[in-house]
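Bug #77: duplicate submission created two jobs. Keeping one. Sequence:
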Amino acid sequence: MDDRVRLYGTDEPPAAGRRLKAGALTCNLIAGNLRSIRYAGTEVIRAVGYIVRDRDWGTYDPDIADLSVDESDDGFTVRYRASCVSPGGVRLGYAATIKGEASGRLVFDVAAMPEGGDFETNRCGFCILHPIEGVAGRPVSVEHGDGTVEQTVFPDLIEPWQPFKDIAALGHEAAPGIVALCRMDGDVFEMEDQRAWSDASYKTYVRPLARPWPYSLPGGETNRQTVTLELQGSGTAAPVSAPAATSGRSDAAVEIGLGAAAGTMPDFGVLVAPEDAAAILKHPQPLQRLAPRHLLFHYDPLAGHGAAELKAFAAIQALLPGVRTMLECVVPGLGDPDEELAAAAAAVRSAGLRLDAVTVGPSVDRQSTPPGSQWPACPPLETVYAAARAAFPGVELGGGMFSYFTELNRKRPPLEPLGYVTHATCPIVHAADDQSVMQTLEAIPFITRSARAIIGDKPYHLGPTTVGMRQNPYGSRTMPNPDGRRIAMADDDPRQRGLFAAAWLVGYAARLEPDGPQSWTGAAMAGPRGLYAGEAAVVPAYHVARALAAASGANRTSVTSSDRRRIDGFAFARANGATELWLANLTAAPVGLRLPDGAWAMSRLDVSTFDAASAGDMPAADPIGSRLELPAYAVARMEQAG
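Kept job's structure:
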C-alpha cells in the first residue's frame, strides 16, 4: 500500500490544478473549469464550470485536448477543446476560452456542438457557485432577463425551491466597497440553494428545472454560453484598489483555542444494512469495541428484505446488550399502510428483534420531486404515521426522510405524531473532488439550523452521513465505481477507507452546533461505506467514530480555529474532568498549529501510523509542546489534564 492509498483509499491522483493570476485576480484551473476565484485574497466566486450531466444527473468527465495557457503581467488566456460521448455514441464537442484581466474582469466562453446525432442531457452549460460563509443573508442584486433589477438578499435559512429565477446577472459585495457582478449569457439561468445537499454554495445553473428533462441538443447546431465577471469599486468597473484578504496567509500556523461549555455531544451510532450483516457477525469485535450509542438497521420489503435479514439484525443486537435499536422501515405503498406495517411489525417480533425506535416513510419519498415536477402518489403521511403507531405500540416513532435535507425541506412532515425527525446527508451529490467534499462541512451548520426552523424543539436525528451515496434520490441508480475514482453519486467512494474520511468525520463533528441533532448516525459499520477494512481490520475513521461513541452525552467544550478550512476539531470533558481534543488537517498539505497553553499528550493518525491503526488501536499518546505540525489529512487526539 502506498501513501496515496492511505490518504485517499485509491491510487488515483487528485485532480491537477494550475494557478492563474492577473494582477490581484487569481483562480485555479482544474479539469477545464475555474475554482477559488479571488481578488486580493478574498474569495469572490467559488467556481465557474461548464458541466454536462446525463439522464441520471451523473456528471461526464470530459476529455480535454489542445490546452494552451498564455500568461502575462496584465492577464491570462486559456483555450482548450473538450468532448464527452453519450451512452448512445453521440459526441458532444466544445471549445472553451477563458480570459482574465488585471482589472478584475474574467470571461469564460464555450461553444458546444453535438456530432453524430442529438445529444441527450439533463443539463449542459455553466454552473456558477457563490460561497456561503460571509455571503448568506447579505444583499444581492438580481438582474432578470427583461432588464429589471431586484434588490434582495442571499437566503440565510435554506430555501426549499429556487430563490431566484430568470437570472441575467448577479451582483454582491465581495469585500468592503467591491461589488462582484457576474453576468450569464446564452440561455436562461436560475439559482438553487445547494446548501440543501450540503454543498457549500449557492448554484446558478443553466436551464430552468421546470422545463422538461432529459432534453436533447440538436446535432450539428452550436450552443454558445458566456459567463463574465467584473469587479466594480467606487462606481467604476476597473481598476479598483485591492481589498484586504478575509483570511490569514495560507502558510500561517493555525491558532487553536478552547472556550466554555457548549451543550452536549450527540449520541453517536452506526448504520447496519442487511447486506453488511454477515461481515459484522463474522468479526464482531470491531463493533463491540466501538460501543455505539445506537444501531440503525435498514429494512426495505421492496428490496426483498424479510425474516432472514431481521434475524441477522437480532443477532447483531445481541452483541451489544441494551444498545438503543432503531429501524428504518420503508413502507412499500403498494397496498394499505395498515397491512404493510402490520406485516413488518409481525416479522420484527418473529425475528426476536427488540426495537426502541422505528422510522417510517413511503418508498416513493426516497425519490426527489424537483421544482415543477408532479408529486408521486402515496398515502398521506398522517395515514402512514397512524398505521405505524398501531403496528409498533410502545416504540418511539420517527419520520422525515431517508434521503437528504433537500427532500425534508420540500415535503415537511406533520410533527405531532412523531417522537423525532430525521434526514441524511451525502457530500458527493454534485461534485466529488477533494476540495468540494471538504467544503461541504461549511454547510452543516446551515442545514441543522434550517432543520431546527422546521421541527422546532422536536428531537432531531441526523444520518446516516457517509462520503459514499447509499441511495440516489435524483436518478435510477447510484454510480458504479469499480476503478476507485472520485465520482459524484458513487455508492463506493474509496476515500471512505483513507485518512481523508477520518479527517472529514472530525470536521463534521466540529460543525455540529449545540442546538443541532441529539443523535447522529455518523457512519456505516460495514460494506463499501463502512468502518471495516476487510476481515477484522478497520479504516482510520473507525477511531474517530469510537471516540464520538464514547463522547456521546458528554459536556462539549467549544473549540476555535483561526482557519477552520485547514484545521478544525471538537472537544469534550471526560468523566474524570480531563479535556479530550480531536483535531484534523482538512487539506492535502502539512499545516502548523498552536495549541492552548497547558500540558498535552497526543496520539496521531497519519500515513506513518495507518497500518498499525488498522488493527483497531490508536497509537500511544506522547507528550508534546504547544506547537506542532499535522501532515496531510492527519487526525490527532489530544489529552489535557482537567
